[in-house]
Amino acid sequence: MAEQRHEPVRADARQNRARIIEVAREALTAAGDASLNSIAKKAGVGPGTLYRHFPTREALIVAVYRHEVERLAAYAPELLAEHPPLEALRLWFDRLAYYGRIKHGLSDVLHALTDDGLVGETYGPIVGAVTTLLRACEDDGSIRPCVDPDDVLLMLGFLWRVSPGKEGEARAARLLDLVIDGLRFAAPDRA
Question: What pLDDT score does 168 carry?
């Protein structure tokens, strides 16, 4: 049996891939039906380069989705390092709302891909981030004790139903205010 050699990915190929994902995120947020050719052009690469990295539209959408989940999960400890826990939680919720708007444009494809285990793969990092934020808030007394992170994520599912645009953003902000108020109800620091 011949030994397979895995060549390291060249730095320019990694940069192209990262640039394609970033441009695709922006383009697909603006219009879920953005063409792959328009994404390649905006990323400054040829269609062949895009298709080498992402052979199908679905592959690109999954890469954007995974990238956003990684960024969202990593954002929780960054926020806690810079803000009081309750403020960090709200800022993270705002980022989740933004992510919900991205997902809104990709919902048909992502829904079709959930059978492939995509949701299971990405749920862990997100529930981990929520757990970290909730525990910090519980520890400083800014929210009620024993809040279940899975319950919070289920409750935040409304973000995926809010329409994109200014009106949707305003609605998401109002609903997130209600979520924060609900978490603060019976919090030790409010007693």
Answer: 86
Q: Give the up-direction half-sphere exposure of residue 171: CA atoms within 13 A in the CB hemisphere.
A: 14
In the chain, which segments carry CATH 1.10.357.10?
58-190
Architecture of domain 58-190: Orthogonal Bundle (1.10)
Surface-to-core class of residue 58, CB atoms within 10 Å of its CB (0-12 exposed, 13-18 middle, 19+ buried):
middle
Between these two residues, 190 and 43, which has the higher pLDDT value?
Answer: 43
User: What one-letter code names the amino acid at 101?
Assistant: R
- d(Cα 106, Cα 62) in Å, to the nearest integer? 9
Please state the pTM of the whole predicted model. 0.79
Predicted local confidence at residue 122, as pLDDT: 80
Rounded Cα gap, residues 146 and 137, in angstroms? 11
Q: What is the structure's pLDDT at 160? A: 77
Find the radius of gyration of the CA atoms of the chain: 19
Whether the CB-CB separation of 139 and 88 falls below 8 Å is answered with: no
C-alpha to C-alpha distance for 82 and 76, rounded to whole angstroms = 10
Name the class of domain 7-55.
Answer: mainly alpha
Q: Which residue has the tokens 């954007």?
A: 64
- CB-neighbour burial class of residue 139 (10 A; exposed 0-12, middle 13-18, buried 19+): exposed
